[in-house]
Amino acid sequence: MSFTDRESAAETNTIEQELDGANVVSCAVAQFEQKLLRYAQLWVGQLDSARDVVQETFLQLHRQVRTQMPPTLAAWLFTVCRHRAIDWCRRERRANSKSTLKDTDMGVAQATAETDGPIESLIRDESHRELRDQLEGLTATQRETLRLRFQSGLSYQEISQVTGMTVNHVGVTIHAALQKLRERMGTNPQN
Predict the structure, then answer these.
(1) Chain segment 40-98, per-residue pLDDT in tens
(2) How many domains does the chain have?
(3) Which domain covers residue 63, as residue numbers?
(4) What is the dihedral of CA 86, 88, 94, 96, to 10 degrees?
(5) How far, in Å, CA of 41 to CA of 83, rounded?
(6) Contacts of 97 (CB under 8 A, 6+ apart)
(7) Helix 3-16 vs helix 21-44: angle between axes, to the nearest 10 degrees?
């Protein structure tokens, strides 16, 4: 178990120790709201719509903890958020709006940039632009698994639960994506 996996497990265990449903929800909001917001925005594009998706996710958590605590809170939250975002995209598609995961990459910086100063925002925007350019060559699945792992800090097991892939497939997907990024950036350690 890597440090990040232990850190993620420790965050989740802290919340899961809360027995009162309202406390669980408020602790979950405090710890996961920003991560879920960034993740939802990757799917839906607009920050307001991402906030709606995340709100629906926490409402589902509130209903769920009344009867039974989700087994792995982080994975459960991201899974519900993913399903709500996919539902949102389907509704939008039916309304003749074209919203895809690839099209929404440009909106990723908005959620974090709102809390930064102007200089930090410029630096972050340039970094995001370079990263977006590199991520364009990856499949949607590769982009999603990388973001869940490195942006949201989920373990391979949690990513597996969110995406429905096996843990081994998650590892292979992340490895292939990182290898492709290294090749595109000219930083392949095997050269």
Answers:
(1) 988 888 899 999 999 999 999 988 887 887 788 899 999 999 999 988 888 887 775 44
(2) 1
(3) 3-185
(4) -110
(5) 13
(6) none
(7) 130
